[in-house]
User: Which sequence fits this backbone?
């Protein structure tokens, strides 16, 4: 079915911006056009200081089924003698910048996985800062079933989230992992009853939007940086990041609010 209308819906509520992938007829799988709209929306959110928390979710019954396999620009060439499709080019052009963009957003990013997340759709979700999923949602490393390897950061993210043993089995078998099992394995933060999913995501996002954005982003960056450091280097890195945070207004405000027994108002970006 041809796409009509916006492929990424942008909505603001307080300091929370929600980006909703909107190709429900194909479980919000990625086309070049949806990639383009998503990157534009991410860049706009990054440039807008009023956005203090970003939520990525999907419309309809799915979160995102990865690459749209019916997209002629990425489908394999079926004719004998045809030049093979360069699948790596799609990864370099779309998925690598997308995951790096999410990982470098100047505000926390929540993946609100409302339904099935498959292939690159699963790994884009796992690349976000906090991943919550509706109880009925599931995660599928669908790649092996079509003769590919995990992409969109899957080979890096999965073993770090669940350990090598689980990562390899999930990637090789491509079984549907229900949200509750994903939470139990530590792949995501938690699963939430479908009935309260939207309200709980909104409450979580509002809570994060009221927190010290600059420190939360520095937390993500420091944790990511520590993955390639030894303990002594990580301790040194923490000291230098903490020095920067200590010079900020949010530190003063946080301590003042604590001592005055009032709610803090954080403003640093
Ligand atoms: O190629 C490159 O550029 C490289 C990039 C690769 C990145 C990747 O993401 S590779 C992995 C691509 N994704 C997949 O292989 C997942 C394919 N989808 C599925 O395995 C299943 O649809 C799901 C497990 C996600 C969900 O199953 P189910 O039973 O809940 O739904 P369904 O009936 O299979 O799908 C519903 C509709 O969505 C259906 O269309 P229809 O029959 O109602 O008209 C189905 O064809 C469509 N759909 C689902 N996934 C995709 C898709 N259409 C296009 N591309 C998809 N990836």
Assistant:
């Amino acid at each position: 079915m041809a796409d009509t209308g916006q492929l990424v819906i942008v909505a603001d509520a307080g300091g929370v911006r929600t980006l909703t992938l909107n190709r429900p007829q194909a479980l919000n799988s990625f086309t070049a056009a949806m990639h383009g709209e998503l990157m534009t929306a991410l860049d706009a959110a990054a440039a807008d200081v009023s956005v203090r928390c970003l939520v990525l979710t999907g419309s309809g019954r799915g979160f995102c089924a990865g690459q749209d396999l019916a997209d002629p620009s990425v489908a394999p060439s079926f004719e004998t003698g045809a030049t093979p499709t360069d699948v790596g080019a799609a990864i370099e052009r779309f998925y690598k910048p997308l995951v790096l963009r999410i990982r470098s957003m100047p505000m926390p990013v929540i993946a609100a996985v409302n339904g099935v997340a498959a292939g690159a759709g699963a790994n884009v979700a796992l690349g976000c800062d906090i991943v919550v999923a509706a109880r009925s949602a599931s995660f599928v490393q669908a790649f092996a079933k079509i003769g590919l390897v995990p992409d969109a950061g899957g080979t890096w993210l999965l073993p770090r989230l669940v350990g090598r043993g689980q990562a390899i089995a999930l990637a090789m078998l491509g079984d549907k992992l229900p949200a509750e099992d994903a939470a139990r394995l530590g792949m995501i933060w938690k699963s939430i009853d479908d009935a309260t999913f939207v309200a709980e995501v909104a409450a979580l996002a509002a809570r994060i939007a009221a927190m010290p954005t600059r420190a939360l982003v520095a937390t993500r960056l420091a944790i990511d940086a520590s993955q390639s450091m030894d303990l002594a280097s990580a301790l040194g890195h923490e000291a230098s990041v903490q020095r920067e945070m200590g010079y900020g207004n949010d530190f003063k405000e946080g301590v003042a609010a604590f001592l005055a027994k009032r709610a803090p108002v954080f403003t640093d970006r």
User: Anything to note?
Assistant: The two ends are 42 Å apart (CA to CA).
